[in-house]
Write a sequence for this structure.
């Protein structure tokens, strides 16, 4: 307030005492806009791999041999004559081997796909808008000196 009004609170900081006279001060303040930046997390991507199993069936055709031994009666000339030049009483041995196939399983791992995780960074320019405040001071000097009214400010620091 102008005209010797009482000051209180913060206004006391700007008042200087000179005996019984006090100067009243209006601080002139101005805000400056400072734009900075900070990193902010927008979440994360986590990729995990795990192994699953599934049963698989496949048909395979297998071959199997069987040896059969059969005794049968003989008719005709083989019964009374000599077979193979009279060697009917010769010792002999005949061998036949039975063979079969059995299923055999083997596994082979091969890569069928891959997952690649990559992080790229882009730059962008963003315009930041805000409002800054400034104290404006107007002085109305209604004193008359030399008959001309004056309005304005005097800055001794500029």
């Amino acid at each position: 307030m102008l005209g010797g009004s009482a000051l209180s609170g913060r206004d006391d900081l700007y008042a200087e005492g000179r005996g019984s006279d006090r100067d009243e001060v209006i601080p002139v303040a101005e805000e400056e806009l400072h734009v900075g930046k900070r990193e902010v997390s927008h979440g994360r991507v986590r990729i995990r791999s795990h192994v699953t199993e599934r049963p698989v069936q496949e048909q395979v055709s297998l071959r199997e041999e069987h040896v059969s031994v059969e005794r049968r009666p003989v008719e005709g000339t083989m019964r009374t004559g000599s077979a193979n030049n009279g060697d009917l009483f010769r010792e002999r041995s005949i061998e036949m081997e039975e063979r079969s196939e059995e299923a055999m399983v083997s596994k082979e791992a091969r890569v069928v796909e891959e997952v690649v995780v990559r992080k790229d960074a882009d730059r962008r320019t963003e315009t930041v808008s805000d409002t800054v405040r400034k104290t404006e001071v107007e002085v109305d000097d209604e004193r008359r000196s030399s008959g001309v009214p004056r309005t304005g400010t005097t800055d001794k620091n500029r």
User: Anything to note?
Assistant: Strands lie at 16-18, 21-23, 140-145, 148-151.
